[in-house]
Amino acid sequence: MALPSRPIRVAIVNDYQVVVAGIVTMLADYQDRIEIVELDTRLPVVSDVDIVLLDTFAFVESQGVALVDLVRTGDSKVVVFTWTTDPRSAISASLKGVAGYLSKTLSALDLVSALEDIHAGLPVADACEEPAGEDGLGDWPGREAGLTPREAEVLALIARGMTNQAVAEELFLSINSVKSYIRSAYRKIGAQRRAEAVIWALQNGFAFHATRSLAASR
């Protein structure tokens, strides 16, 4: 397809600054094609952008910015960037008006190309197939401790006070998968109990604060 006449204006949204910053780093080599004009954690988008890129790492609508509110913001297209591969999640997002559902196993170049296609109104394959691994780019809390994205996401939701069953429902995982991620995460961070894991999480990047950064201020 022909490249757009100007870079696509993008806002990046997630509840964690490290996740948002990771996407900025991921897209840094493509500034001629992607212009990042706003970064938000737990705040709605205020800039005039072409695409709102929502990273769903530990994203819980009832505890922050609602997906439907992002979709209703101006003429921007909302694109979900996620590790969740269950088709039910993709269908739910589509019914809420999301324009694209992309896997976090995409390379930076493939992500840029997908965003350009979505901006142009072209169909883009969603992330319904289970990835072979969790080797996508970007960043997440707990990465330096050896946590995989999914282990970190489960730990983040536990740190918010969610039960194992609630985590399973939120991430479209089986309860046994959630328990397995919890065990492996606990082992890596040296936690024996849930309370210890929550304390560790809050002391190691899993606490979140509402922030906004606009292009003019960066």
Automatic annotation (TrEMBL):
<feature type="domain" description="HTH luxR-type">
    <location>
        <begin position="140"/>
        <end position="205"/>
    </location>
</feature>
<dbReference type="InterPro" id="IPR016032">
    <property type="entry name" value="Sig_transdc_resp-reg_C-effctor"/>
</dbReference>
<feature type="domain" description="Response regulatory">
    <location>
        <begin position="9"/>
        <end position="119"/>
    </location>
</feature>
<dbReference type="InterPro" id="IPR011006">
    <property type="entry name" value="CheY-like_superfamily"/>
</dbReference>
<dbReference type="InterPro" id="IPR000792">
    <property type="entry name" value="Tscrpt_reg_LuxR_C"/>
</dbReference>
<dbReference type="GO" id="GO:0000160">
    <property type="term" value="P:phosphorelay signal transduction system"/>
</dbReference>
<dbReference type="GO" id="GO:0003677">
    <property type="term" value="F:DNA binding"/>
</dbReference>
<dbReference type="InterPro" id="IPR036388">
    <property type="entry name" value="WH-like_DNA-bd_sf"/>
</dbReference>
<dbReference type="InterPro" id="IPR039420">
    <property type="entry name" value="WalR-like"/>
</dbReference>
<protein>
    <submittedName>
        <fullName>Regulatory protein, LuxR</fullName>
    </submittedName>
</protein>
<dbReference type="InterPro" id="IPR001789">
    <property type="entry name" value="Sig_transdc_resp-reg_receiver"/>
</dbReference>
<dbReference type="GO" id="GO:0006355">
    <property type="term" value="P:regulation of DNA-templated transcription"/>
</dbReference>
<keyword id="KW-0238">DNA-binding</keyword>
<dbReference type="Pfam" id="PF00196">
    <property type="entry name" value="GerE"/>
</dbReference>
